[in-house]
Write a structure and sequence with these properties.
Length: about 170
């Protein structure tokens, strides 16, 4: 009789909403993040996705980046070495790897969605994508990096938003 491994074979995403004024559909956000990870060819990684208030985001931005303002997305990678398909073969086959945490301020998505004339759900989806791309090694410190990252975001969002996978309730 063959034993079943306790190792999860798919990507796992744990989602938490610490911004109660926004009715975010956690199961939809989870599936959306899993779809991004799949398109990026991640296998057996664990991701934490947390929605927070502007106050919490501002505090995190100050604490970790020494920036005294609220931002839209922060990404905390566990390791710079863990990138797409870069794990040793033995690790890919046997271990789930914690990729990192993406923290999002939904209020910033609400403000920017009006500014950019897009839906709140689409802007929030972009933030999820943006955070995961940071964990995958993408940077946006230079104009060239920002352009490359935006192109990858646009490509992924085009692929995923065809299904109109909404991640907020209809009330927001």
């Amino acid at each position: 009789m063959r034993r079943r491994s306790r190792i999860q074979r798919n990507n796992q995403v744990f989602v938490s909403n610490q911004a109660p004024q926004f009715q975010i559909q956690l199961s939809h956000a989870r599936r959306f993040a899993q779809a991004i990870l799949k398109l990026l060819r991640f296998k057996k990684v664990v991701l934490s996705l947390t929605f927070v208030t502007d106050r919490v985001m501002s505090n995190l931005n100050q604490q970790f980046l020494n920036h005294s303002y609220v931002t839209d997305v922060l990404a905390f990678p566990v390791s710079q070495k863990l990138k797409v398909n870069r794990l040793q073969k033995s690790q890919r086959e046997t271990q789930n790897q914690f990729l990192g945490e993406v923290v999002i301020a939904p209020n910033q998505a609400k403000v920017r969605s009006k500014e950019y004339e897009v839906s709140f759900s689409d802007e929030l989806s972009r933030y999820i994508c943006h955070g995961i791309l940071h964990l995958a090694g993408f940077r946006d410190k230079t104009v060239a990096q920002t352009k490359k990252m935006r192109q990858k975001e646009d490509f992924l969002l085009t692929q995923l938003l065809k299904d109109r996978l909404g991640i907020i309730s209809h009330g927001n």
